């Protein structure tokens, strides 16, 4: 085609530009996982401590993870933790609850809401801890505060230690599509921080023997997720933690975990298991 006027050129541009944009978006989407792996191979080293829950029966708040979390912070030379309480509505009391425990262990703690610029607070932090609550509310607020990209970059580019519990673990994964929470608000996307290339289901529960409830089990809900999605899902039972140190992932805690992958039988992994293969899924 040889356009003979300005209007002809404008017509060509209007037709070509949307196609170009679609191709670019497709390329970015399909390369997302590869970009993460390439980034890490260039020198960045993930440091993640992903708990199923902060409260476990028979223990005081966070007590079940005290030894492992303290060792995680000390290994990474952490003196002060930036706590992100967005999954609950009362930021002050939530931060105080977590901070009281961390201070008893020897680590200072401050809430991100105490800073006028949340992004700058993340950029200056020694370590991040995102607590549990409602996953939809948490992710919506992270987007509103411009923190999704900021946290992703700090953790994957600069190896800042990241701790998550429950909802804070959900948002560390590819998406929040395997959360147990009610959608009390609507985030702009289910896409989360993508610090790992798979999903997690915290508080994973096995059906009880003799159970009379006829609703879907947790396993059935995850299988429904896999009818339309490919991402592996790690079912973390309460008391379990996934520790990620660079390219190595290890299951910690008192319980086993169940791994679900599309069109495959679920697999059980005991505490201490090497789950590093999930980082390449």
Could you characterize the architecture of this molecule?
By secondary structure, the protein is an alpha/beta fold. The chain has nine helices and eleven strands. It has helices at 6-30, 32-41, 66-75, 91-105, 118-124, 135-144, 147-158, 167-170, 218-225; strands at 47-51, 80-84, 108-111, 128-130, 162-165, 199-201, 233-236, 240-245, 248-253, 257-260, 267-269. The chain has a seven-stranded mixed beta sheet. It has a four-stranded mixed beta sheet with strand order 6-7-10-11, with no helix packed on it. Strand 6 (199-201), helix 9 and strand 7 form a beta-alpha-beta unit. The longest helix has 25 residues, at 6-30. It is globular. Residues 1-35 and 37-42 have low confidence and may be disordered.
Topology at a glance:
Elements: H1 6-30, H2 32-41, E1 47-51, H3 66-75, E2 80-84, H4 91-105, E3 108-111, H5 118-124, E4 128-130, H6 135-144, H7 147-158, E5 162-165, H8 167-170, E6 199-201, H9 218-225, E7 233-236, E8 240-245, E9 248-253, E10 257-260, E11 267-269
Parallel strand pairs: 1-5, 2-3, 2-4, 4-5, 6-7
Antiparallel strand pairs: 1-8, 7-10, 8-9, 10-11
Helix pairs in contact: 5-7
């Amino acid at each position: 085609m040889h356009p003979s006027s300005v209007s002809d050129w404008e017509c060509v541009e209007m037709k070509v530009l949307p196609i170009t944009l679609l191709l670019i978006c497709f390329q970015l989407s399909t390369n997302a996982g590869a970009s993460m792996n390439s980034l890490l191979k260039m020198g960045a080293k993930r440091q993640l401590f992903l708990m199923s829950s902060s409260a476990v029966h028979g223990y005081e708040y966070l007590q079940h993870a005290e030894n492992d979390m303290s060792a995680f912070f000390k290994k990474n030379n952490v003196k002060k933790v930036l706590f992100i309480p967005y999954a609950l509505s009362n930021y002050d009391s939530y931060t105080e609850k977590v901070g009281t425990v961390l201070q008893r262990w020897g680590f200072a703690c401050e809430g991100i809401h105490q800073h006028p610029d949340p992004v700058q607070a993340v950029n200056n932090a020694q370590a991040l801890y995102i607590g549990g609550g409602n996953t939809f509310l948490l992710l919506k607020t992270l987007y509103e505060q411009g923190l999704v990209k900021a946290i992703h970059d700090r953790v994957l580019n600069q190896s800042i230690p990241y701790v998550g519990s429950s909802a804070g673990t959900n948002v560390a994964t590819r998406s929040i599509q395997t959360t147990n929470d009610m959608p009390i608000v609507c985030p702009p996307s289910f896409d989360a921080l993508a610090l790992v290339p798979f999903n997690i289901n915290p508080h994973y529960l096995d059906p009880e023997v003799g159970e009379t409830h006829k609703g879907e089990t947790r396993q059935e809900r995850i299988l429904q997720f896999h009818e339309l999605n490919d991402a592996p899902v790690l079912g973390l039972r309460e008391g379990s933690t996934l520790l990620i140190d660079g390219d190595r992932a290890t299951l910690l805690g008192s319980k086993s975990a169940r791994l679900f992958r599309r069109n495959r039988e679920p697999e059980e992994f005991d505490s201490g298991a090497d789950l590093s293969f999930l980082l390449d899924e």
